[in-house]
Design brief:
This protein has helices spanning 36-51, 100-104, 184-205, 216-244, 249-264, 267-277, 332-337, 352-367, 400-403, 431-442; strands spanning 3-7, 13-18, 59-66, 71-77, 83-88, 91-93, 110-112, 138-144, 147-151, 157-159, 168-170, 295-297, 300-302, 320-323, 329-331, 343-348, 374-380, 391-394, 412-416, 422-426. It is an alpha+beta fold and 445 residues long. A seven-stranded mixed sheet has the order 15-14-18-17-16-19-20. Strands 2-1-8-9 form a four-stranded mixed sheet, covered by helices on one side. Strands 3-4-5 form a three-stranded antiparallel sheet. A hairpin with a 5-residue loop joins strand 1 and strand 2 (13-18). The longest helix is centred in the middle third of the chain and has 29 residues, at 216-244. The chain is globular, with a radius of gyration of 24 Å. The termini are far apart. The model is unreliable at 295-308 (pLDDT under 50).
Length: 445
């Protein structure tokens, strides 16, 4: 779906918005609307084919007990009636807006209710009228006085605590339920688990002798994701109150006839709307688990604020690169970030000496405690041979280094988290700092 058109109840066009108009740093410039049943099947099939794991159905949560070193959860098969006790180090509750785990732990679910009844329906629509406004690649949003109808082509607002117990985490609708729009609820749930699971993976492999009561890494999940939930409430709740709430009809007509068309004609505001719809503006800039905010320029490290697009906590930028062996053009996400499940270090340099220095640090992290998986890739703007310990890519347009705020004279290095957000940007001379940072993060001496 490439965009949406807004109309009134008589079919008159109010305004329109298309993803191709936005300056999104991605090759995926459209949105894909799929029924929830289809999305679930895609995820289940991938889980089974990739990892041999089957999702169990007809399983009901019964109770949960928390201990200092473990969690005991009782579940029941609703078909056979058989119960099972599961002992685990952690529990992630993804059991929806009426979360039984949240209720069992007496976790508050504060918020406010949108004064509206909302229905999401998957149907086949056919129109024989020559004046039909339906299209295969556009959404239609009808803003009528009696309500709002959104037609998307298929290919209460509460907030709870994300980390209410050292060993219990809430994710998805169990922690944030908002006015349904744009697939934000599902995608926010995906982002929840992407943010959390790499941190849990580290802790499960490096728990020896560590207390998790005040664990900075695990606590960062709630610290980073809570503002995202707050933002979802704001950007979905306010429009819902205008179009559904007890506001004067004069305000409704003013928003529909004057404010919305004006916004859709103003490129900066339109770009902000599209970036929010794409959820590419999500940032964890105030997190405690990042390297200090810093910028590399001409090889010198300046303790100043980096541009928001490349600050620690922002989404790692994408861009075109060339494989120095096959000479095939590809992109950073396709070739480097998507295949990796680890921390990634992008070293921007044309110096083989820098490559060997950084390779030695990364090899030490891999082979000695903390035995951490770290992928090292070299981004160069001059051709030179691949290193034995790192893949070399060509930045032919000399743009990638600028995206990552790494100076062209002496280069720099970007440290990228497993969920593809920036941990920090360093100068090429700070190879020891990345080793210390990752060891501290894991908890290794």
């Amino acid at each position: 779906m490439r965009g949406a058109k807004f109309r009134n109840e008589k079919g008159a066009l109010i305004g329109q918005i298309f993803f191709e108009e936005a300056n999104l740093n991605t090759k995926y410039t459209n949105t894909c609307a799929i029924a929830q049943t289809g999305t679930e099947k895609i995820l289940r099939d991938y889980l089974e084919s990739k990892y041999g794991i089957k999702v169990e159905f007809n399983i009901e949560f019964v109770s949960i007990q928390t201990f200092d070193d473990r969690i005991k959860t009782v579940i029941k098969n609703t078909v056979t009636g058989e119960s099972c006790i599961i002992t685990s180090r952690f529990v992630i509750a993804c059991d929806g807006g009426r979360s039984a785990v949240r209720h069992a732990l007496n976790i508050s679910f504060d918020g406010y209710a949108v004064p509206a009844v909302v229905m999401n329906i998957d149907i086949h629509v056919r129109s024989d009228s020559e004046e039909s406004y339906l299209a295969d690649d556009e959404a239609v949003v009808v803003l009528a006085e009696t309500g709002v109808v959104g037609i998307l082509p298929s290919a209460k607002v509460p907030l709870s605590g994300y980390h209410p117990h050292p060993r219990v985490f809430l994710a998805g609708d169990a922690v944030h339920v908002h006015f349904p729009v744009g697939g934000w609820g599902m995608n926010a749930g995906f982002q929840d688990v992407a943010n959390l699971c790499w941190k849990l993976s580290i802790r499960l492999r490096h728990l020896s002798g560590l207390s998790i009561v005040n664990d900075t890494l695990l606590n960062s999940y709630g610290f980073e994701r809570s503002p995202v939930g707050d933002n979802l409430m704001t950007i979905t709740g306010r429009p819902a109150n205008v179009f559904y709430g007890p506001v004067p009809r004069s305000i409704f007509y003013a928003v529909r006839s004057v404010v919305l068309p004006a916004i859709l004609r103003f490129p900066p505001l339109k770009n902000t709307i599209l970036s929010n719809l794409a959820m590419m503006e999500v940032s964890y800039g105030k997190s405690e688990i990042h390297l200090p905010v810093q910028k590399v320029w001409g090889g010198e490290l300046l303790e100043i604020f980096a541009p928001p697009a490349v600050a620690p906590g922002s989404r790692a930028p994408d861009g075109d690169i060339i494989d120095t062996i096959t000479h095939v053009r590809t992109r950073i996400y396709d070739a480097i970030l998507a295949p990796s499940r680890s921390f990634v270090v992008l070293l921007f340099t044309n110096s083989s000496e820098h490559v060997e220095t950084w390779s030695a640090v990364i090899d030490e992290l891999r082979s000695e405690p903390p035995n951490l998986n770290v992928d090292l890739h070299i981004i160069a703007n001059e051709w030179f041979e691949n290193s034995r310990s790192a893949k070399v890519w060509m930045d032919s347009g000399k743009k990638i280094g600028k995206f990552y705020a790494c100076g062209e004279l002496h280069g720099g290095a970007a440290v990228i988290r497993p969920d593809r957000y920036l941990s920090g940007i360093l100068s090429v001379g700070q190879h020891q700092q990345v080793g210390k940072y990752l060891k501290d993060l894991v908890g290794s001496e």
